[in-house]
């Protein structure tokens, strides 16, 4: 059993720990071992502290999934970073520890993100995912439409990212909302 809730400032370190661990689990063999080894929980914690304590950014939301009072996944969303893509919202990040995969955690996190976007008056959403990431099927199963791809530099490598989009977020309404 797990719960999904709004992230709090005191979650920053746990989110950072999941962020680094999930990158290492998901991207081994895709991103260079050197880059993965150099990921820093301390730097990620600082980034999450900044994000979660920035009261001026009312547009950004973050959610965590907990199992046995431990954070096992998170998602964040906000305004679309690429205004030219025709989507007004973006799922900026979603990472789940491998041990919590296939339990519905990702789906529940996406529903929380969608509910937050709808509450902000957003109608559509996109997400970027590494092309070689086997988790791409997750977005396809949620009805994400393949949009396009672009190169991204990670460390010293140029990889490809794929964009998926949902043009009508209302199709998610009535879905798996918060469990509190």
Task: Describe what you observe in this structure.
With 180 residues, this protein is α+β, with helices and mostly antiparallel strands. It is built from 5 helices and 7 strands; from the N terminus they run βαααβββαβαββ. It has helices at residues 12-27, 33-37, 41-53, 105-119, 136-141, and strands at 3-6, 61-67, 70-79, 89-96, 125-130, 145-154, 157-166. It has a 7-stranded mixed β-sheet with strand order 1-2-3-4-5-7-6. β4 (89-96), α4 and β5 (125-130) form a beta-alpha-beta unit. α1 (12-27) crosses α3 (41-53). 32% of the residues are buried.
Main features:
single chain; 180 residues; globular; 7 strands; 31% helix
Write a brief structural summary.
The protein is of the alpha+beta class and 180 residues long. The protein has helices at 12-27, 33-37, 41-53, 105-119, 136-141, and strands at 3-6, 61-67, 70-79, 89-96, 125-130, 145-154, 157-166. Strands 1-2-3-4-5-7-6 form a seven-stranded mixed sheet.
SSE order and pairing:
Layout (H helix, E strand, L loop, with lengths): L2 E4 L5 H16 L5 H5 L3 H13 L7 E7 L2 E10 L9 E8 L8 H15 L5 E6 L5 H6 L3 E10 L2 E10 L14
Parallel strand pairs: 4-5
Antiparallel strand pairs: 1-2, 2-3, 3-4, 5-7, 6-7
Helix pairs in contact: 1-3
């Amino acid at each position: 059993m797990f719960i999904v809730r709004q992230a709090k400032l005191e979650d920053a370190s746990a989110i950072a720990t999941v962020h680094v661990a999930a990158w290492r689990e998901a991207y081994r063999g895709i991103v260079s071992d050197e880059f993965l080894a150099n990921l820093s929980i301390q730097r990620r914690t600082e980034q999450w502290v900044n994000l979660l304590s920035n009261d001026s950014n009312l547009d950004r939301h973050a959610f965590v999934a907990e199992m046995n009072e431990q954070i096992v996944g998170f998602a964040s969303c906000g305004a679309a970073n690429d205004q030219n893509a025709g989507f007004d919202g973006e799922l900026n990040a979603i990472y789940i520890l491998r041990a919590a995969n296939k339990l519905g955690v990702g789906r529940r996190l996406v529903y929380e993100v969608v509910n937050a976007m709808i509450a902000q008056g957003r109608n559509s959403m996109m997400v970027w995912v590494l092309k070689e990431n086997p988790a791409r099927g997750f977005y396809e199963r949620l009805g994400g439409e393949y949009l396009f791809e672009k190169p991204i530099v990670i460390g010293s490598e140029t990889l490809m990212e794929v964009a998926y989009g949902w043009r009508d977020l209302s199709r998610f309404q009535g879905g798996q909302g918060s469990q509190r």
